[in-house]
Amino acid sequence: MLWERESELAQATDALRQARSGRGSLLVVRGPLGVGRSSFLEALAALVGEQGALLLRAQASEAEEGFGLGVVRQLVNSALGPADDSDHWLRDAAASLPEGAPPSIPSGLSADSDSMLSAVSPRSAPCRSQMPLWLAALLDSMSRDRPVVLMVDDLQWADTESLQALAVSLARRRQQRILFVFSVLPGDVRGTRQHVRQLLTPASGSPGSVDEAADRTVVLSVLRRDSVRRLVEQSIGDAADAAFVETVATRSGGSPLLLRALLDEAQYLGLRPTSAHAAIVAALRPERVRKRLAAFLRSQPDRVRRAAYALTVLGAVTDSQFVACLAGLDEAQVAEAIDVLRLAGLVDPHSCRLASGTVLRDLLEEHMPPQKRTAMRKVAAELLHRTGHPAELAAEQFMAASALRGQRAVRILRTAADSALRRGSPRDSARYLRRALLDGSLSGHDRARLLVDLATAERAFATAASVRHVVEAVPLLESVVERADAVARLGPLQMDPPTFRIDDVRAEVADGLRRCHSNDWVERELMLRLEAHEHILSAQDPAHIKRALRRFRDLGPSPRLGTRGERELVTSLMYIAFLANAAPADRLAGLAARLLEQEPPAPEHVHSTIPLAVTVLAAAGRTEGTAGWLHKAHRLAQRRGGDVEQAVIRCEQAVVALADGHPADAGDKVLQADALAGPGTSGLPTMCVGALARVALAADEPELAKQLLTHHRLHAGNQYLAALLHMARGSLAARRNEPRGALYHYRMAGLHTERIGWGNPIVLPWPSRTALMHHRLGEHDEALAVARTDVDRSRVWGAPAGVGRSLIVLGRITAGQESTECLEEAVAVLEKGSNGYELCRALYALGTHQETGRTRRTAALKRAQELATEYGVHSLAKSIREQLTGGPKVTEQAGYRLTPSERKVAELAAAGLSNSEISIRLGTSSRMVEKHLTRSYRKLDISGRSDLIRALEVLRNDQPL
Predict the structure, then answer these.
(1) Are 819 and 851 a contacting pair, CB within 8 Å?
(2) pLDDT at residue 102 is higher than 90
(3) Contact predicate 433/457, CB 8 Å
(4) CB–CB of 689/708 below 8 Å?
(5) How many whole angstroms separate alpha carbon 607 and alpha carbon 571?
(6) 3-state class (DSSP) for residue 640
(7) DSSP SS3 for 484
(8) With the CA atoms of 331, 335, 336 and 339 taken in that order, what torsion angle do they form, in degrees rounded to the nearest 10?
(9) Residue 759 burial (CB < 10 Å; 0-12/13-18/19+)?
(10) Whole-prediction pTM value?
(11) Distances (CA, A) of 360 to 206, 308, 640
(12) Angle between helices 915-922 and 926-940 (to 10 degrees)
């Protein structure tokens, strides 16, 4: 089936109608390489057969160009057969020859005789000289019986004798019922031969364009997007995804030949028209297209090939002077070569660059000899850079070259890397710098500077590589200031001490900087930043915590925050004061708010101490404006493609969401951060693992917390991560109704945190969990002692959420009036904060407490139900509803606990979409989709995808009120 050829077929049909009425004509079919000229002729041949006309058909080819009268032989053989008409056509043709001519066509020759071939193409020179007249007579005899269509495909490759013979017949077309149809590839050098031009311009017999002199000209063009989509769906049999169609259209440029070749290979490989398979299609290079292009290039003079290679190298650059310089041609030769390539459809009609269709561009590049390709790319890079083109455009030439050497190339690549970093593309910047490092002549200081720049780019998406390159660069740098600057570029969150000895390197550089200390502003800033790094990396050392707290006190109640170094130092000290519970929440939150006001919402903040300020704000319950600030930073990080930056920001967002009373949203952010931190990023920073695990525990997801801690670089030296793992195991034991085992793990968690001097119960709520397990075991005195200590510590910190949580626990394990007073105080404290979820829990505890009066109980439960609904805590809302109504009224559905993200993923999976298709639809990673589905299966109590439709249908029919 032909696509978008209706008007062209209509012209051919009209020409055939005129031929039937006795007005013969010429129809020229032209179009660029691969546009479907042969397919169009196939459709026309079918139309000729339907209308009862006689078809003479030949296919000229490059291999038979030297075979005399080869095209005529094909034409005659295609028409002559066992029918009775064949004999009289041959006799009429023979009789038409001049008297005395050699008997080239024996009388009485049977059409299917073995001697037909020699009769049609006589071997003797005199017989060959009569062939034009004989062919004209044969066609005249045929046309008297039936309308005739004479069709030659790829006329530019026809042999000269056939062209001469056809010219005689074509001159007589006006008085015969004959339609001559010639297809020709514009721009082919053989099409400029005199005999070809005479056939295409029979009216004047002089060179000219086909459009000016041919009776009719059909110009075939490439297919539009809608036709590409329909052809994809017809070929593969499924509805095509937009990304797949776009890829196929871009790769083929709408060329039917390229399109058909791509789809044939896609079918052979078993690909489906989905976005997941679009990347595979983008890498296909069909062999038949390769051969077709190679044949075309072989047929062209050297100047055309050189111009094609130059255009391939230059890509989007549209400058004929550049083409001339690269190809080694003068302007006239370049203009001629580009005209040839443009007529063949390889060059854009309106500019001096290759036409759309990246398959041809890739195959052209592969066709170039490797040495020529490398040489041309080096010349192109230097030419582009020298003439003021963007550095990245010049650098891409070196990226495609097989070899690189020389300072000039390195300078261009470094300039391009700086440009890429400024426009927010660290991955491109790293690509250029890695390529520059392949220059074997680089060593010493020059290599070190490249390594530092590379680490700066990589820190956005590859933590371990960034740290490794800094460690490699530091010994090669000449001055202590340069070494300090290199280390300071790594944020303290990414500087995991055991990794590549980075803490030892930092300590050595800091000591060297202190020894040569001067009043230089740059050195002072670097000293402050490295000191901040030291405080963060030594935060689990009780002796260092004491020194840091003294340093914090020495700064006074309102420390200076004017420079980046000052802000980083204050943040690190403030964070240690928070961990040690050595300063009240209000003071530290005010300081953290001041810090955040002076920082723009940019992804780069993750490479500083600012995420710790966010942690302090969340712990204090003072998150006003923080969520919006983080949203802006994350949006920029997405544009940059920095997975590490996105993961850290997702961690911050999870902590803020939990502080704002949205545990489900916080859980989603945990999964998103975990999904971003794949092998390519070297996993999550240790501090982020701790933050995410704490959020997961608070969101009642101990399995997720355990998974995070065991999958992300948990090492024996990190006491806090070990404590979190005990907390997760304790929660799982409590779920299994193993209070003694849970108590052991909670006490071990407390032992680890006390060992490192972290006394703030907000950091790890092990005392409250321990008190509850003592209570379950009947150990009331121990429970009360731990719970009251927890309340006292929470009051020292002073954040409403922390004080409220500890009071809830104390109220649950005490008896009499004191328990009610504790719960009432918890509600009153939490009413002053911003955490609606914790307030909901306090009201629920008060409303279900035996000592609470009936009126107060009802009021508390109703308020708690409103908050549970507002904050999306469906499981708690269900429990409250049961309390208010006196028992369960609605069948419990595990699906009520599906988060919005989990539900969306589950519904798409039930609709038949694959993980990769869901990830593209929702703009997330396949790993994230897999995690959502795993949690959904567990919550819905099903085994896999096959049960999703049923489970979701039940869920829709029984929604909670």
Answers:
(1) yes
(2) no
(3) yes
(4) yes
(5) 13
(6) helix
(7) helix
(8) 170
(9) middle
(10) 0.69
(11) 34, 11, 31
(12) 110
Which tokens in the block code for residue 249?
């259209």
CA-based max dimension of the chain: 137
Residue 168, pLDDT above cutoff 80: yes
With the C-alpha atoms ordered 719, 720, 721, 723, is the resulting torsion angle positive or negative?
A: positive
* 575 close to 608: Cβ distance less than 8 angstroms: no
- Among the listed residues 539, 415, 504, 544, the one whose alpha carbon sits nearest the alpha carbon of residue 487: 504
805-810 long-range contacts (CB < 8 A, ≥24 apart) are 805/765, 805/768, 805/838, 805/841, 806/761, 806/767, 806/768, 807/842, 808/841, 808/842, 808/845, 809/768, 809/771, 809/772, 810/771, 810/784
581 in Cβ contact with 789 (< 8 Å)? no
Please, where are the H alpha helices in 21-159?
A: 37-50, 70-79, 85-95, 116-120, 125-129, 131-145
Q: Percent of the chain, pLDDT > 70?
A: 90
The helix/strand/coil state of 347 is: strand
DSSP bridge pairs for 27: 181, 216
Using alpha carbons, list the distances in angstroms from residue 623 to 595, 609, 616, 750, 835.
13, 17, 9, 28, 10
Q: Report DSSP letters for 185-223, one per residue.
A: -TT-GGGGSHHHHHHH-TTT-S---HHHHSSEEEE--PP
Those residues whose C-beta lies under 8 Å from the C-beta of residue 178, and which sit 6 or more positions away, are 19, 24, 139, 143, 147, 148, 149, 150, 169
Token code pair at residue 486: 């290199």
Amino acid at 633: A
Q: 101: which 2 tokens?
A: 């001519």
Per-residue pLDDT of 446-494, as tens digits, reads: 999 999 999 999 998 888 899 999 999 999 999 999 999 999 999 888 7
* 212, pLDDT greater than 70: no
CA dihedral sign, ordered 550, 540, 538, 603:
negative
Residue 900's identity, in one-letter code, is P
Q: How far apart are CA 693 and CA 867, in angstroms?
A: 25
Instruction: Provide the residue count of the chain.
Output: 961
b (16+ CB within 10 A) / e for 605-643:
bbbbbbbbbbbbbbbbbbbeebbebbeebbebbeebebb
Nearest to residue 730, comparing CAs of 712, 716, 747, 713?
747
**CA 87/CA 69 separation, integer angstroms:** 21
Residue 493 contacts residue 648 (beta carbons within 8 Å): yes
CB 629 within 8 A of CB 601: yes
Which residue in this structure is represented by tokens 């043709």? Answer: 93
